[in-house]
Specification:
The protein is α/β, with parallel strands linked by helices. The protein contains 8 helices and 15 strands. It has a single domain, classed as Metallo-beta-lactamase, Chain A (4-Layer Sandwich). Strand 8 and strand 9 form a beta hairpin.
Length: 320
């Protein structure tokens, strides 16, 4: 079973001499800047022990959480950050006694979670992901809000095993369930549930940084889907489950439920505005999020966030 402690023990700090990865052009860098709009200059990784043979690699806010399992079936991991992260990740895995990853799971298609696929895939790692992750990586993507264009992935970076709803792996003493969470953060999100270890990697369906949760509407993300995905994860978990969000500190089921309640309350307020026929401009002026919670504001402001989610709420109400 995984530890139930809220603050796992940091056992190592791994730093590699790595090139700068420009994630967004001319983006200001501060603690208030959203994770996907900073320039990555520090790819040092903290290695956090979750349970025997199971670790999480954490870095700065711009770097997604990587879950690593080391055991008799080899090394497998969930997510691989940026391509520039590869040396630090390999160094961390070696420090754990692991080898080059045999299996690699992508929680979704975004470059800060699947950007390292190519170097690991070219060495023979079997990459598994949702059907839409392979599709979006193969096509190339663009996120206008962040001024970010990601070109088509090279063949070695593409998942070679995909699934539409759920898939299971049996590795290192764990039943590893890969479960699709539709139309939340993106259209490609999965949760990775290590049943015996009682650990869930949530991907960016739960981004626990304090910023407005990024919803990639162009590629299928919705607020209602994010709420449903978080509820699905909570439904798998118990009070001892260690939940690994896509970004931010490791957390408990209770913390996830509290976060979901915040989003649900905001969604209800937006529904009421939609029922009253309010325009987006009226809703932005009312600052409805402030009635529930104070998120950090950086590149994504409340007005920008409402510009993404409120039209979705109106459309869902009209479709009923």
């Amino acid at each position: 079973m995984a530890r139930s402690t809220r603050l796992p023990i940091a056992i190592a700090l791994v730093t590699a001499a790595l090139p700068i990865a420009a994630v967004a052009h001319d983006a200001p860098q501060s603690d208030e800047t959203p994770y996907s709009a900073v320039t990555v200059t520090d790819l040092s990784l903290e290695v956090i022990s979750v349970s025997e043979g199971l670790f999480v690699l954490q870095g700065r806010r711009a770097i997604g959480n990587v879950l690593v399992s080391v055991g008799e079936d080899g090394t497998f991991m969930v997510d691989d950050q940026f391509e520039e992260s590869e040396p630090a990740i390999r160094q961390a895995i070696a420090a754990m006694g692991g080898s080059s990853p045999r299996f690699l799971i992508n929680s979704h298609y975004h470059h800060d979670h699947a950007g390292g696929n190519a170097p690991f895939g070219s060495e023979g790692a079997i990459i598994a992901a949702h059907d839409n992750t392979r599709k979006l990586l193969a096509e190339g993507t663009e996120i206008e809000l962040l001024g970010l264009t990601v070109p088509q992935a090279e063949p070695a970076a593409l998942p070679i095993i995909t699934f539409p709803e759920e898939m299971s792996l049996f590795l290192n003493g764990n039943h590893v369930r890969l479960i699709y969470l539709p139309n939340g953060h993106t259209s490609s999100d999965i949760a990775t549930y290590l049943v015996e270890a009682n650990v869930i990697h949530a991907g960016d369906v739960w981004n626990y940084t304090g910023n407005y949760p990024f919803i990639d509407a162009r590629y299928g993300g919705t607020l209602s889907g994010m709420i449903a995905g978080q509820r699905a994860i909570a439904g798998m978990a118990n009070e001892q489950t260690v939940i690994v969000p896509g970004h931010g500190p490791l957390a408990t089921r209770a913390e996830l439920v509290t976060y979901t309640e915040i989003l649900s309350a905001i969604h209800e307020i937006l529904l009421e505005h939609a029922r009253l026929g309010h325009t987006l401009e009226q809703v932005i002026a009312a600052r409805p999020v402030d009635q529930v919670h104070e998120f950090s504001t950086g590149i994504v402001t409340q007005a920008m966030w409402l510009g993404i989610v409120y039209p979705q709420v109106v459309a869902s109400l009209e479709a009923q």
